[in-house]
C-alpha cells in the first residue's frame, strides 16, 4: 500500500465525516441516511443501549420539527484513524475530555459509510479509584 493511496483515502474519509457531522448538527437526517450504512447503529456502552438509524431519524425529525434539536458539540482532544490493509475499513477513535472516548467504524463500499458509532464506557483512572 502506497502512502499516496492512504493519503487519498484519509482525505476522502475526512471530507465525508465533515459532511456527516454537519448533517447531524443541523438535524438533516436525509443527508445522514446517505452516509450511514443500512446496518448503522449507535451503541451507548455506559447505558447498555443500542439505537438503530430509523429510530434516530424519527427522533431527529421530531426534534427538528419542534425546534428542539440542539446537539451538544463535543470537546475533542484527539482523533486517531486506523485503516485495514485493504483500505476498506477504518476505525476512528475520538478522545474527549474526562477520558471519554467515541469509536466510529467506517466501511468503504464504493463510498465511505459509517456502520457504527460507539460511546465507550469511561475507563476508571487511578484518580477515580483514589476518590472512592
Structure report:
This protein has helices at 3-26, 29-35, 53-65, 126-131, and strands at residues 36-44, 49-52, 76-83, 89-96, 101-109, 111-119. The chain is α+β, with helices and mostly antiparallel strands. Strands 2-1-6-5-4-3 form a six-stranded mixed beta sheet. The longest helix is centred in the N-terminal third of the chain and has 24 residues, at 3-26.
Key features?
132 residues, alpha+beta, Nuclear Transport Factor 2, Chain: A, six-stranded mixed beta sheet, 4 helices, Nuclear transport factor 2 family protein
Cα shape: globular
**Rg over alpha carbons:** 16 Å
Mean pLDDT: 88
Extended strand count: 6
Order of helices and strands: HHEEHEEEEH
C-alpha termini separation: 49 Å
CATH arch. level architecture? Roll
Report helical residue fraction. 25-40%
Total number of domains: 1
Parts with pLDDT < 50 across at least 5 consecutive residues: none
Organism: Acinetobacter kookii
Protein name: Nuclear transport factor 2 family protein
List the SSEs and their pairings.
Layout (H helix, E strand, L loop, with lengths): L2 H24 L2 H7 E9 L4 E4 H13 L10 E8 L5 E8 L4 E9 L1 E9 L6 H6 L1
Parallel strand pairs: 1-6
Antiparallel strand pairs: 1-2, 3-4, 4-5, 5-6
Helix pairs in contact: 1-2, 2-3
Organism: Acinetobacter kookii
Protein name: Nuclear transport factor 2 family protein
Brief summary of the model shown:
By secondary structure, this protein is an alpha+beta fold.
Amino acid at each position: 500500500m502506497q502512502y499516496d493511496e492512504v493519503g487519498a483515502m484519509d482525505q476522502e474519509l475526512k471530507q465525508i465525516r465533515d459532511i456527516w457531522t454537519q448533517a447531524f448538527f443541523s438535524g438533516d437526517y436525509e443527508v445522514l441516511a446517505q452516509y450511514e450504512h443500512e446496518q448503522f447503529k449507535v451503541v451507548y456502552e455506559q447505558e447498555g443501549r443500542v439505537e438503530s438509524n430509523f429510530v434516530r431519524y424519527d427522533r431527529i425529525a421530531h426534534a427538528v420539527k419542534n425546534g428542539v434539536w440542539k446537539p451538544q458539540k463535543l470537546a475533542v482532544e484527539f482523533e486517531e484513524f486506523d485503516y485495514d490493509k485493504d483500505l476498506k475499513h477504518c476505525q476512528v477513535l475520538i478522545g474527549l475530555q474526562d477520558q471519554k472516548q467515541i469509536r466510529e467504524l467506517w466501511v468503504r463500499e464504493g463510498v465511505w459509510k459509517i456502520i457504527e458509532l460507539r460511546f465507550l464506557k469511561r475507563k476508571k483512572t487511578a484518580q477515580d479509584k483514589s476518590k472512592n
